[in-house]
Specification:
The complex is a heterodimer of chains A (313) and B (543). In chain A, 35% of the residues lie in helices and 20% in strands. Chain A is an alpha+beta fold. In chain A, the strands form three sheets. Chain A has a five-stranded mixed sheet, covered by helices on one side. The two termini of chain A are 35 Å apart. Classes of the chains: A alpha+beta (313), B mainly alpha (543). At the A-B interface, α1, α2, β7 and β9 of A face α4, α6, α9, α10 and α11 of B.
């Protein structure tokens, strides 16, 4: 490994490195004259040294305006470019492979759509957009993949996401970068970018009972969700078939999109946003199941919709 | 220097230092100069506490595993380092010591507007400090100085409540000092000391005071909410209780970003004085340097979101905060360019105060420009929460503010104590601090870009050589910071008496004897010309 430059696992990482180098060049251009002039003046005009000290001025509007404006103009373009690619980081392509992430003190749980789970290590296929949908079971963590030059904080009670396309197979690092308590510094593992065939083989050899949606279906049955939500149920509760991704009117008149965040909150804090026309009768499951199980339930509900819609933005 | 104890001079016998010899005459003094010295002693003690914690951190990081401290111990070490250095050293440092001592002298006043309030603010500082020492004695705290929720409210098992109380209490000391300065600058200026003639040190303290008064209450509020959630389970920040964890970050950074300017604006004021005095020439662009302090204080209130680019904040808010963070760099750049222009055709003394000022400019420029890198959204997504950020803010707060603090100490020491120190040792200390600082923190930029997270006592072995460079630099820095303590204390007994104006500088504080009499001015001064009017003196051309 190059001791001065971090490994690069994506084209995007190359853009960031280039941006850093170019900007470093510009700031050297802005700071260099200051350093050189201060030293030069300090030597040339030091006390006791004969020098021309006549005709000094102590103000000039033009000089002030130029050194206020020129550096600004030289740097603002970099800010626009950096903002542009950052905003792009928020929008995953439609064909991205979604991997769910649950962080807890002090481990990472990754759940692949076909149901494979892993802890601390993350396997992903090369050249395939991957979207991580992340939440935390306890405090704030941050998923940091230095080889891709990206990170995103992982919050309790909320889904945040991050997407990337790795294009160089290899083993890199997964890091928690937001201080999260005692074992913060060892909360991490390997980030393994695999050739697509290898990834498929890895998925196949990982022991799995069911896909993520399948696990959610089993959980749905085990928790007895159907007792209220199934069509033939005696209790009046909204049907969940086809709900995911739909506009859903709420009791207080708002209309929300039933995205992953809404579905999660409806399980963990059901009385926060009650569907219009139904009593607020559902108990919370926050004390019964963890975020990884909620993720499976959400995947199941999304599988009942026409297509699995993107998770919360 | 002859090794004899030099007897007191007439000026010393008539000075504030001899106006009462009892402990009581110091602890109940309302003289701004004596209170400044009380602050100097107490913040130096806390600087020592914070420095010990820093030494523990750098020692632990010599190897990739934990060996000297446990992980828990490391977490507690960097937490107490941050809390002590930010609230018990940096924020009071220049304002409470040099602002206190100099503002009345610079504007031609007898004292601050509220001398008793000034003494009260020192007692409040001490009370806050006692809470810190208590927290340390019972085992410390493990949240980081940022106290992020819900870690601090629901999960941390250190002494969060007592440290929150310490910060809450010391905040009132800041507020009272800021209030005192604002009223003093408005009401106690000598005849003829118009706003356009105020020394730039006073302008920057005015801007600082506005931030102290407006921002500190928000921190106090956030700390009360932490206590309410931790004690009573009030659901403010923890989502399990129905709260919002990011609310805390918004409140915290709404104070803590302007707090960076609380630390660096007074430093800039010091450097403006040091540069123009060393050059014996009126500062270039007085109006722009003064106005840029106000601009920094104003715009500084609307950039806090740049601490939250990857926190889950709306990306569009992040774009706005990124742009405003570029805007706030402009007034800082104006200052740096004006200082440089001031040196042109100057008559420059290469004495210790000027060397510290040059050190400040160099380190502040690096700190500021790396701050621009961090303000770029996509770059921040990589280096946020790495040692790159640690290096950046240490360049501003240590390379900048602490270097300026030492510059101020070396510039006004003859005025404060009436004694000259050894200038050769002063130059050596200035050079060592500059070298030691760069060796400590420059490697951390590289480490951060390589992906070294902050607050990690455990790291991949390939980072070790950079960490070792940093730790080696820290030991040089430790010696360099201790050095002035030796020759400055030495100067108290053996240093030659200082004349009223040893640096041939311009300013009302140099017209009174060194050390000044208790009431500062025998006859109230009348100001008749602009600040830094060095044309009044003929520029000396020795030899």
């Amino acid at each position: 490994m190059n001791p001065f430059w971090p490994e690069r696992a994506s084209v995007y990482a190359g853009h960031i490195d280039l941006l850093m180098w170019a900007f470093t060049g510009v700031v050297a251009l802005l700071a260099g004259p200051v350093f050189l002039l201060i030293l030069w003046f300090a030597i040339k005009y030091r006390r006791g040294q004969a020098a021309d000290r006549e005709h000094v001025i102590d103000q000039s509007m033009w000089i002030e305006v130029s050194w206020a404006v020129i550096p600004f103009v030289l740097t603002v373009g970099f800010f626009v470019y950096a903002a542009w690619i950052f905003v792009g980081l928020q929008r995953a392509p439609a064909d991205a492979l979604t991997i769910d992430v649950v962080a807890k003190q002090w481990m990472w749980k990754f759940q692949h759509p076909e149901g494979q789970r892993e802890i601390d290590d993350l396997h992903v296929p090369v050249d395939q957009p991957v979207k991580l949908v992340m939440t935390s079971q306890d405090v704030i963590h941050s998923l940091y993949l230095p080889a891709l030059r990206i990170k995103q904080d992982v919050l309790p009670g909320r889904y945040t996401s991050l997407w990337f396309k790795a294009d160089r197979p290899g083993t890199y690092r997964v890091i928690c970068s937001q201080f999260c308590g005692l074992d913060h510094s060892v909360m991490g593992g390997r980030f393994i970018v695999m050739r697509q065939a290898d990834y498929a083989r890895w998925l196949a050899t990982s022991q799995v009972d069911a896909s993520l949606a399948g696990q959610g279906k089993a959980l749905y049955a085990r928790l007895g969700c159907g007792g209220c939500h199934d069509a033939r149920s005696a209790v009046r509760a909204p049907s969940l078939v086809g709900l995911a991704g739909q506009a859903t009117p709420l009791q207080d008149g708002r209309v929300v999109t039933a995205d992953a965040q809404y579905l999660r909150d409806s399980v963990m804090a059901p009385n926060r946003d009650v569907a219009a026309g139904y009593p607020a009768a559902m108990p919370t499951y926050a004390n019964l199941i963890g975020e990884d199980q909620v993720t499976a339930l959400v995947a199941y509900l999304q599988s009942l919709a026409p297509a699995r819609s993107g998770a919360a933005s | 220097m002859s090794p004899v104890h030099r007897p007191e001079t007439v000026e010393e016998q008539q000075s504030y230092l001899r106006a009462g010899h009892s402990l009581r005459s110091w602890l109940f003094s309302t003289d701004h100069k004596r209170i400044a010295l009380l602050y100097l002693i107490s913040i130096s003690a806390f600087f020592f506490v914070g420095a010990l914690a820093a030494a523990a951190i750098r020692l632990e990081l010599v190897t990739p595993q934990t060996d000297f401290l446990t992980r828990e111990g490391y977490n507690r070490a960097f937490t107490i380092h941050g809390i002590v250095m930010v609230w018990f050293f940096l924020i009071p440092s220049i304002p409470a010591v040099f602002g206190n001592f100099l503002i009345p002298l610079m504007i031609g006043a007898k004292d601050l507007a509220f001398p008793k309030l000034n003494l009260l603010s020192w007692y409040i500082y001490v009370l806050g400090g006692i809470f810190v020492l208590y927290t340390l004695a019972v085992g410390g705290v493990d949240t980081g100085w940022t106290l992020y929720t819900p870690l601090s409210t629901q999960f941390a098992n250190g002494h969060v409540l007592t440290i929150a109380a310490a910060i809450f209490i010391v905040g009132f000391s800041s507020i009272l000092t800021g209030l005192n300065f604002i009223v003093t600058i408005h009401t106690l200026r000598a005849p003829g000391m118009t706003w356009g003639r105020l020394p730039l040190f006073v302008w920057s303290h005015y801007a600082t005071s506005v931030i102290l008064v407006l921002a500190t209450p928000v921190l106090a509020l956030a700390l009360v909410l932490i206590a309410a959630e931790r004690l009573f389970g009030l659901g403010v920040f923890d989502p399990k209780l129905g709260g919002d964890p990011l609310l805390f970050q918004n409140l915290f950074w709404f104070y803590s970003h302007p707090a960076v300017y609380i630390m660096v604006l007074p430093a800039m004021g010091v450097v403006s004085e040091l540069v123009t005095a060393a050059a014996h020439k009126r500062i270039f662009g007085y109006v722009f340097v003064a106005a840029s302090s106000i601009a920094i204080a104003g715009v500084g209130f609307v950039v806090w979101g740049h601490h939250m680019f990857v926190a889950g904040q709306s990306p569009y808010a992040s774009v706005v905060f990124s742009f405003l963070s570029l805007v706030v760099a402009v007034p800082s750049a104006i200052k740096v360019y004006n200082w440089t222009a001031t040196l042109y055709k100057g008559d420059i003394s290469l004495d210790p105060p000027f060397l510290f000022a040059m050190g400040f400019i160099g380190l502040f420029v690096i700190g500021g420009l790396t701050g621009l890198m961090l303000a770029m959204l996509a770059v921040d997504a990589h280096v946020h929460d790495t040692t790159f950020v640690v290096a950046h803010f240490h360049y501003i707060m240590v390379g900048g503010a602490v270097t300026a603090f030492f510059g101020a100490l070396h510039f006004w020491w003859p005025k404060i104590t009436g004694r000259m120190y050894n200038l050769v040792w002063g130059r050596i200390a200035a050079a060592l601090i500059f070298l030691g600082f760069n060796l400590t923190f420059f490697p951390q930029f590289v480490l951060g870009y390589l992906g070294m997270p902050r607050r990690y006592p455990v790291y991949p072995p390939q980072f070790q050589w950079l960490h070792d460079l940093s730790s080696a630099g820290a030991s040089i820095l430790g010696v360099a910071y201790a050095l002035p303590l030796v020759y400055l204390v030495w100067s108290l007994r053996r240093g030659p008496p200082a004349p009223a104006n040893p640096w041939e500088a311009f300013g009302l504080e140099w017209t009174v004897p060194s050390p000044p009499p208790k009431h500062n001015f025998d006859t109230p001064p009348v100001v008749t010309g602009p600040a830094y009017d060095y044309r009044l003196k003929t520029v000396r051309k020795r030899r």
